[in-house]
Design brief:
Strand content: 5-15%
CATH class of one domain: Alpha Beta
Bound molecules: hypoxanthine, zinc ion
Distance between the termini: 9 Å
Radius of gyration: 19 Å
CATH architecture of one domain: Alpha-Beta Barrel
Number of strands: 8
CATH topology of one domain: TIM Barrel
Largest sheet: 8 strands, parallel
Structural class: alpha/beta
Shape: globular
CATH superfamily of one domain: Metal-dependent hydrolases
Helix content: 40-55%
Strand order of the largest sheet: 1-2-3-4-5-6-7-8
Number of helices: 17
Length: about 325
């Protein structure tokens, strides 16, 4: 089997996907019209042309503007369902999606409207496509910890449907330590925790996320390689990294996919996974991330199988299910 066929066939779990980042321009136009909201673009092509980013912030400005057309439960449902259809095409059998409540509550859309639209689509995705899923609620790190506490409070009625909390948005200048208390409280309430760290921020932020926020997984984490002691810990404890190659390329974290350190980390024994982050903005869903990375880094069939197995290993799936998917991955080699 050639590499691209293997990528297509192998079951995969996605662990780093912002649902608002799966919002394609075509659907954005449709919903804007339906909701009678103005968007500052004349056509889908013009929107895509605006997707030329030079760092994380230049992307976030456009990403938050895009999300502003989402007003009703059905809007969140349609966006999530469109993503699940892409999962089915790419043989993503399990997904743990991020959702940014504050992006919606801060502009007057209730937690419930956004959450219910997403949750109902995920439920239908399981029923119709057999895709299992979880929801991780992220705090926006450019806002205060007090605001994060308010979000945690708002989530109370929906707690049983939220597996964990995460931390996203502008990294530099907003270190994990800023959110220590709210993560401690979330853990006490039974949430699992993850955090974006070491995307644009230094390895020090990864230390803080591990030591202070006690996270289970590091989102991105590509700058861990700058710190040998940190690498030793990540390998010894098998702390997963949810890496997003096309995102790193689009946001200029790397200048060329050939310079990406994913293969180096894989060879060192790090539990790295491949994910799409914000696929509508970064030019590719799961399989496109695999295909382009495999080509740029000359990944072998064994590497692909290892990456797929890591995605299940690093997931919050129940152990028995995890094992059965891992077995299915091994059978493809
Ligand atoms: N990094 C930080 N915040 C984000 C991202 C990302 O890649 N995508 C959506 N919010
Ligand atoms: Zn992300």
């Amino acid at each position: 089997m050639n590499i691209n066929e293997l990528i297509k066939k192998i079951p995969k779990a996605e662990l780093h996907l912002h649902i608002e980042g799966s919002f394609e321009p075509e659907l954005m136009f449709e919903i804007a019209e339906r909701n009678k909201v103005e968007i500052p673009y004349k056509s889908v092509e013009e929107v895509r042309q605006a997707y030329n980013f030079h760092n994380l912030q230049s992307f976030l400005d456009i990403y938050y503007a895009g999300a502003s057309v989402l007003l009703k439960e059905e809007d969140f449902y349609d966006m999530t369902m469109a993503y699940l259809k892409r999962c089915q095409e790419d043989h993503v059998v399990h997904t743990e999606i991020f959702f940014d409540p504050q992006t919606h509550t801060d502009r007057g859309v209730s937690f419930e409207v956004a959450f219910e639209g997403i949750r109902k689509a995920l439920k239908d995705g399981e029923k119709n496509f057999g895709i299992t899923s979880e929801i991780i609620m992220c705090f926006l790190r450019h806002l205060s910890q007090e605001e994060a506490f308010k979000t945690l409070e708002m989530a109370k009625p929906f707690k049983d449907s939220i597996i964990g909390v995460g931390l996203d948005s502008s990294e530099v200048g907003h270190p994990p330590e800023k959110f220590k208390d709210v993560f401690t409280e979330a853990t006490k309430q039974g949430y699992l925790t993850v955090a974006h760290a070491g995307e644009e921020g230094p390895a020090e932020y990864i230390w803080q996320a591990l030591d202070l926020l006690k996270i289970e997984r590091i989102d991105h984490g590509v700058r861990a390689l700058e710190d040998d002691k940190l690498m030793d810990l990540i390998i010894k404890e098998q702390i997963p990294l949810t890496v997003c190659p096309l995102s790193n390329l689009k946001l200029c974290v790397v200048n060329d996919l050939k310079d990406h350190n994913l293969k180096t980390m894989l060879d060192k024994g790090v539990c790295v996974t491949i994910n799409s982050d914000d696929p509508a903005y970064f030019g590719g869903y799961m399989n496109q991330n695999f295909v382009e990375t495999a080509e740029a880094l000359n990944l072998s069939g064994e590497d692909i199988v290892k990456l797929a197995k890591n995605s299940f290993e690093a997931s919050f799936m129940e152990e028995g299910l995890k094992e059965s998917w891992i077995k299915k991955c091994d059978q493809l080699l």
